[in-house]
Amino acid sequence: MTQTITLYVDGACRGNPGLGGWGAYIITESEKHKLCGGEAETTNNRMELTAAIEGIQFCPRDAKLIIWTDSKYVKQGITEWIHGWKKKNWKDVKNPDLWKLLDATCQGRDIEWNWIKGHAGHPGNEMADQLANQGADQTLIAMKNLLSSAETVLEQADMLDKKKAEQDWLLDDPFGFDLMEAELQDDSEVLENDVLENAEQENPQADTMQPQAQAPEPVLESATSASEKPLHPHIVITPRSKEVHGPRQLILDTETTGFYFQDTDRIIEVGAIEMVNRKLTGSSIHIYINPQKPVGESENIHGISDEFLKDKPLYAEIADVLFDYLKGAEIIAHNATFDMNFLDMEFKRAGFVALSEVCEVTDTLAMAKSKHPGQKNSLDALVRRYEIPQRDRTFHGALLDAEILADVYLAMTGGQVSFDMDTLTEAEQQQGQTARSAVQIDLPVILPSAEELEAHENWVKQFEEKHGTACLFAK
């Protein structure tokens, strides 16, 4: 007797085009199967088609298949539109390779196609959606591993080249700015050493040995909270070093035990720096967190060990201070969906509302893909593209990555203001405006021909006849 198999198929894409994944949840009479995969650069429609193809190919040819998809593009395409596409020899059809493969995969099979509303709480569709995102996550992990290996090799080569090259300060730094910065750093190191020596003299029995990943953690008052209650000793909040007024932006990064916020992975580090009116205020927050689970292979990325985290606070212990610091600000993060998913999950576990409900979110990865389509847009790639000074990124630390991202964000959005406009005279401001307005480009205007207008009208009529609705491109 022919068996009946039910399939729920779905696709997901982060960027469209961008990182994508597909999932197929297959229910037979005796067992259930979960399939998933992904691609680094794809579209949502291609992932929807791939999910259907992979799901069907997994099933026996003699089985009756009942397929549920939340994509009308797939359902109507395979049941209605495909007949016209074949007659026109696939002319002007997007994704013809996948449509041809789906058509060939369906030949000789007994298939019933159904549409289901997505994200409506149906268990089968929700599982397919989860599998699609899992496929995207697995692809992202593979990409990061490859990029990390390649970037490590490049960084090591750059370090060797820098060591070999003899620095000519007169050529590279004729005004001595780098020398001035080095002197300031030397002064700060001397001051820090004096503080440590004084502390040792006051408490000679104290153990001064610190793990390499743990820097001295002074506890400072929050720049955003009027509360006088003492902070947890492992929460480091630095106050503003300058008076500024305006909406707060927080450049943020997290480190986690893995990539699956919906499963058991947890946040182990949060770092954020404050910016107002495109100027860093000096305020920041930095916290290490005990995830209550092994960090596993993720230690190869961030360098934070289980031993280092064992005495750190749980998320529930620091949630109120972190939430007070972050709420109301615009959160700027690279691949912000990743960080916000984890933060929302952790805050909900601690009894708070999701952070995304009280903060505006800006994703610099989406910005970079829009500005540089088809190019690498990792944080390291953007650092090289915008010629931002290199920092040691042997390991990815949250606060370090936030500092780098601040430079990248300012470069992508026009660069940091190098002088204060208020100090310019009125004549200088008018002169600058005149210089800018003098640059005018007359763009050519190309009008459509009569044949092109007629072809456009025919296409609009065909669209309206086929779909029964007015076309967006009608006059």
Automatic annotation (TrEMBL):
Q: What EC numbers are recorded for this enzyme?
A: 3.1.26.4
Record's subcellular location: Cytoplasm
Keyword Manganese attached: yes
Gene Ontology biological process terms in this record? DNA replication proofreading; RNA catabolic process
Quaternary form? Answer: Monomer.
Any Gene Ontology CC annotation: cytosol
Provide the species name: Acinetobacter kookii
Where is this protein chiefly located? cytoplasm
Family matches, as PROSITE patterns:
RNASE_H_1 (PS50879)
Q: Where does Mg(2+) 2 bind?
A: D10, D129
Q: Extract the GO molecular function terms from the UniProt entry.
A: 3'-5' exonuclease activity; DNA binding; DNA-directed DNA polymerase activity; magnesium ion binding; RNA-DNA hybrid ribonuclease activity
> What's the superkingdom here?
Bacteria
Please give the catalytic activity noted in the UniProt record.
Answer: Endonucleolytic cleavage to 5'-phosphomonoester; DNA(n) + a 2'-deoxyribonucleoside 5'-triphosphate = DNA(n+1) + diphosphate
The name this protein carries in UniProt is: Ribonuclease H
EC top class, as a word: hydrolase
Q: Which residues bind substrate?
A: D253, E255, E297, H302, D401
Q: Which InterPro entries did the record assign?
A: DnaQ, DnaQ_proteo, Ribonucl_H, RNaseH-like_sf, RNaseH_domain, RNaseH_sf, RNaseHI
